[in-house]
Specification:
By secondary structure, the chain is an alpha+beta fold. The chain has helices at 9-15, 30-37, and strands spanning 2-7, 19-23, 49-52, 55-57, 68-72. It has one domain: Roll (Ubiquitin-like (UB roll)), CATH 3.10.20. Helix content is 19%, strand content 29%.
Length: 78
């Protein structure tokens, strides 16, 4: 089972790509996938919003084969 993950802003820079396919672990939630792809570093982990198939979802949303996932970092402005 796999999903397509889309990255935006700083997350795109960290992964070095716009999107990629990722194999899912059984019963993996969107938050668990984020934690797996972006381990906690010295500054902690960047808080993000989660989306699956173009809709915002809660952290405990269980992903299924073929989902399109997006991690949306905070937007800055000025």
């Amino acid at each position: 089972m796999s999903v397509r993950v889309r990255y935006f802003a700083v997350l795109r820079e960290r992964r070095g790509r716009d999107d990629e396919p990722i194999d899912l672990l059984p019963g993996e939630t969107v938050a668990a996938l984020y934690a797996r792809l972006f381990p906690v570093g010295p500054a902690g982990r960047l808080p993000v919003l989660f989306a699956a198939n173009h809709a915002y979802v809660k952290a405990d949303h269980i992903l299924v084969d073929g989902d399109e996932v997006a991690f949306i970092p905070p937007l800055g402005g000025g």
